[in-house]
Amino acid sequence: MAQHISTDRRALLVRNPGSRQGDSADLDAGLERLEAAGVHVDQQLSRSADQTRDIIRKHCNDVDFVIIGGGDGTISSSASVLLECGLPFAILPLGTANDLARSLGIESLDQAFATICDGHTTRIDLGVVNDHLFFNVANLGLGVHVTEELTPEVKQRWGVFSYLKALAAALARHRQFRVSINVDGAEHSMRSMQLAVGNGRFYGGGNVVDQKATIDDDLLHLYSLRPQTFWELLTLAPLLRGGRHDLARRIFATSGRQLNVSTRPSGMAIHADGEPVTQTPAAFSVRSAALEVLVPADSPLLNR
Length: 304
Description:
Structural class: alpha+beta
Oligomer: single chain
Low-confidence stretches: none
Shape: globular
GO molecular function, one term: kinase activity
Organism: Microbulbifer hydrolyticus
Pfam families: DAGK_cat, YegS_C
Domain DAGKc: 6-133
Largest sheet: 7 strands, antiparallel
CATH class of the largest domain: Mainly Beta
Keywords: ATP-binding, Kinase, Lipid biosynthesis, Lipid metabolism, Magnesium, Metal-binding, Nucleotide-binding, Phospholipid biosynthesis, Phospholipid metabolism, Transferase
CATH topology of the largest domain: Tumour Suppressor Smad4
Order of helices and strands: EEHEHEHHEHHEEEHHHEEEEEEHEEEEE
Number of strands: 19
């Protein structure tokens, strides 16, 4: 249910200067805009996930909401302490992909400041994998190799094209694996080269995890890519980009609230929102309406 945060608000801004735009974005005009709208901002810099959590926890009882300036990894690392403090949050998308921002309907930094000024909020879900929280997608296989290739140097040099560069490098070293999937009690077994479980709508720089997915639908959306050649994968790219897995026989797709995944070989690395968090076997679940977030007045989450 949508809500509205009143004027004359106190906000904590935690900014990661290591994110792609974190040290170069000109935030002064936006901060002045917030002050004029009655939002009084205490700005803090953080260079690690632990430091971000410590800063938020320290100010937990002193502010009305938290603004997180950074990429998806920075925002995701804050999920547990936001849940702990019960604070609403807003985002300034300063990363490379900014997929959570897309899921919320935020397309630019200017729109993010407008969102904070307007004060409209709604509640969104969190994904859980082996007790680790995530907003967007957790994956294993090819997607993990892409993340490993997506170094800060690649992000800085290639910008929005960095995911394509990383994908090309990852494809050169990917390996297929056997996976068993239990979805709300239904068993599936197959060979795979990539498996992803989405809580949000977007991942990997604007790819859609499922055409019907939203970050407040109380569901996890899973897809698995069957092993295929580089050229076969290229033909699937438009379907993967748009979340149209139902149109491809080489993609297995399903949705549910409780997912259990085991692999052969076991112990495969799992990344969530671009960060390594755990390994297989893995239990996935969804925490419905877990966090309150500020969204644009025209966000798809408010206008359905």
